Amino acid sequence: MKKFLILLAGGTAVLVALSMMGPLIGFAFSALLVFAGMHYYVKSKSTIAKVLWVAVGLVGVFSAISNIPALIGLAALVLLYVLYKKWNNEEVSFSSVKVKEEDPFTNFENEWAKLTK
């Protein structure tokens, strides 16, 4: 029964993610415009260039605001990831760094702190 519910939720999430592909692509393009505007604003020297890149960034921000439904698609994609992990009986973790108790660098720092006291 648990696998059936995961399959049902996964199917629903796939349908939602596919129906939100248009807004997701628009949202990604908006993020690209905002990134380009900020990146080239910092690099530009003249005032006219800075005004141009601020305008590009604002177009990206307004475009991102109009693509707010893409957040539903992002949530569906995250749900698909979690359901895939649950289907394979794997642990779901969103942190990229896993702390190990036996890490040699941590042990070195602890020993170094003891020596310098």
Can you describe what's shown?
Keywords: Membrane, Transmembrane, Transmembrane helix. The structure is a single chain. The model has no long low-confidence stretch (mean pLDDT 88). It contains five helices and no strands. The longest helix is centred in the N-terminal third of the chain and has 23 residues, at 21-43. Helix content is 78%, strand content 0%. It is an all-alpha fold and 117 residues long. It starts with a helix and ends with a helix. The protein folds into two domains: 1-20 and 69-91; 29-67. Helix 2 (21-43) packs antiparallel against helix 3 and helix 2 (21-43) packs across helix 4 (70-87).
Cα-based radius of gyration, to the nearest Å: 23 Å
Total domain modules: 2
What is the N-to-C succession of helices and strands? HHHHH
Structural category: mainly alpha
Tally of DSSP β-strands = 0
Distance between the amino and carboxyl termini: 59 Å
Strand content: under 5%
Global morphology: flat
Uncertain segments = none
Compute the number of helices. Answer: 5
What is the helix content? over 70%
The biggest sheet amounts to: none
Query: What is the mean pLDDT?
Result: 88
